[in-house]
Amino acid sequence: MEEKIFFYYTSDIHSHFESWSKIVGYFNDKKKQRTKANQSYWLLDNGDYIDRFHPIAEATMGKTNVELLNKAEYHVATIGNNEGITLKYDDLYHLYDRADFELICANFETIKGTNPSWLKPFTTMESINGVKIGIIGLTAPFNAFYNLLGWHVDSPFDALDRYIKELEAETDVILLLSHLGINEDEAIARRYPQIDVIIGGHTHHLFRDGEYIDNTLLTAAGKHGKYVGEIILTWDHQNKRLVKKEAYTTNIEYLNKRDSITQQQLELHSERSSQLLNQPVVHLTKPLEVDWFKETELIRKLVETLKDWTNADCAMLNSGLLLESLEVGAVTYGDVHRICPHPINPCVVELKGDELLEVVRGSLTKAFMELQLKGFGFRGEIIGKMVFAGIEVKFTNNKKNDSQVKEITIDSHKIDMDKIYTVATADMFTFGKLLPEVSRSTYKKYFMPEMLRDLLVHTLKEKL
């Protein structure tokens, strides 16, 4: 006898609820089909379901997201970096206290004592006809952030070494919920042939019909709920082995059917989040302009706050971090969140004078200012003009009448090319190649758990 076993999954939703009622409606139809056919199925989420850019997530620190997963009747989820490093310790410690699903992450632990009661390295379940299935979860080890918040993320390979033999002995089939990224998934597939399927995420890649590395099936469903994944495993009971593994993704955007109950829930949560965030911060007697290509008063004061907050020699932030102007009248936390939704933290790096000069030059180029950025925590449109505190930039015009940086001074002193300066900025510039000198700095100090919008609140209260 052959038995088909089904798994449906989401990954990297990032609180993008535009398609959530469609996803739930699609899964509900699949659940009815499986139930009618007397077939086993499970619903899984692969992390980064929570993203504080959305007011619903911000207002309850992700607890409403957990409630939405409960209502959708998910069975298993793992932790992504957006759950892990954008919440205060106590908020994350109690995030899943009321989860109706199992939360698994084998390389995640507290460094403050006892792990939360909901945290498990893996889970096992059994199909209708007795096939034993093990699911293990792993998340990306951003310990420069996690350790500051009271958590530690172990090497995924060390975690697998601890648990893979136990899973292999207890189960017939092993699935990995991996919030590690495509490169790590491929390495794991080569190193651990015991793993039958890897559900990938974090790097937002999409495998429409799955990809094989040796005998391991790799799947991935992109980001923001545009796609959902389906895995079908066929077990031969006579020979006691998997005889077929299939993986598919479905583009949700083109489906017309929405689950009406879920849509009503989202509308209700949206109203409640607005009420919770409708707490006054300040009353403005003059408007505060935001312009991505100008140094306005609001961004200038925010950069000054960043310099003071971190006690750095100088500071810099890009104008694109502020999305909208503020009008005369009451400004609420909801307004602050709306204009600065990014889960981005302050950071200080050390740069030599010559490196800092290159950073300033690079950040003021037209190409850099107009760069449309997605990721690294940035939830805006373009980077925009870089604004400085503690730095004065002098320009000269070349033959093409383009402005070029001639000289910079730090606190009224000409920059010393060999001196080490502390530079405060947004943590997103320590990732990737946006500003290479910043990302290559050997000294990086992240300020957790405060985000840039917390500094914006302080700026509005104290400096404007």
UniProtKB/TrEMBL annotation:
Gene3D superfamilies, per database record: 3.60.21.10, 5'-Nucleotidase, C-terminal domain (3.90.780.10)
GO biological process terms on file: nucleotide catabolic process
Residues annotated as domain Calcineurin-like phosphoesterase: 9-205
Keyword Nucleotide-binding applies: yes
Domain 5'-Nucleotidase C-terminal: start-end pairs: 291-428
CDD domains recorded: MPP_UshA_N_like
GO molecular function, one term: hydrolase activity
Domain of life: Bacteria
Keyword Protein biosynthesis: no
Alphabetized UniProt keyword annotations: Hydrolase, Nucleotide-binding, Signal
Family: Belongs to the 5'-nucleotidase family.
Name of the featured protein: Bifunctional metallophosphatase/5'-nucleotidase
